[in-house]
Amino acid sequence: MRLALFGGTGRTGRLLVAQALDDGHQVAAFVRSPERLPITHPDLTKVPMGDPGPRALSAGMKGADAVVSVLNGSTRAGSPAATWTRAALSAMAECGVRRLVVTSAAPVPLRGGPAPLAYRLVGWVFRDAHRDLAAMEDIVRGSDVAWTIVRPPRLTNGPRTGRYRLETGGNVPRGLSLSRADLAGAVLHLIDDPAVAGRGVGIAY
């Protein structure tokens, strides 16, 4: 599978790139600073992220089977999650790519009801990032692609175990943490799962 990846220089993104390559996928990683992705591999292409416009992204996205975003959110930093997701969707339409998997965060309020109290407190502390992620979720939900929004809780630097729980349509009950390595592995798994297309998926231990 050929993946177009946004956020590959982040802590989760680097793990996702490494796992995808280990699993035999081809990866086109859209990055602002290629040196921040210290991975070299014949199946890895580093695509410079310049202008967030569809034409600027289309060349690196051609031939992709799916687009994945693990971008962090921040309204103070120009809302990268919402801005680049909107641009990616436009490029996907131009290139004929239909599958999109993005990561958000469990404390971002779910549609149809308030978040649990613990998540609301966390959401207030990280409200800048979560505003951007909430806007990104709205953009994704309003699109016509086969999207999946993955919503993890607090992320750790623990190992990849594969022993996580998934909750389609909501957050995992009493799920308080997840390793970035397991998040990366779950994202790769969910790309191939048609049952989660058009759904949000909670993930946690």
Automatic annotation (TrEMBL):
It comes from the Bacteria. Residues 7-194 form the NAD(P)-binding domain. SUPFAM superfamilies: NAD(P)-binding Rossmann-fold domains (SSF51735). InterPro entries: NAD(P)-bd_dom, NAD(P)-bd_dom_sf, Polyketide_Oxido-like. Gene3D superfamilies: NAD(P)-binding Rossmann-like Domain. This is NAD(P)-dependent oxidoreductase. It comes from Actinomadura rugatobispora.
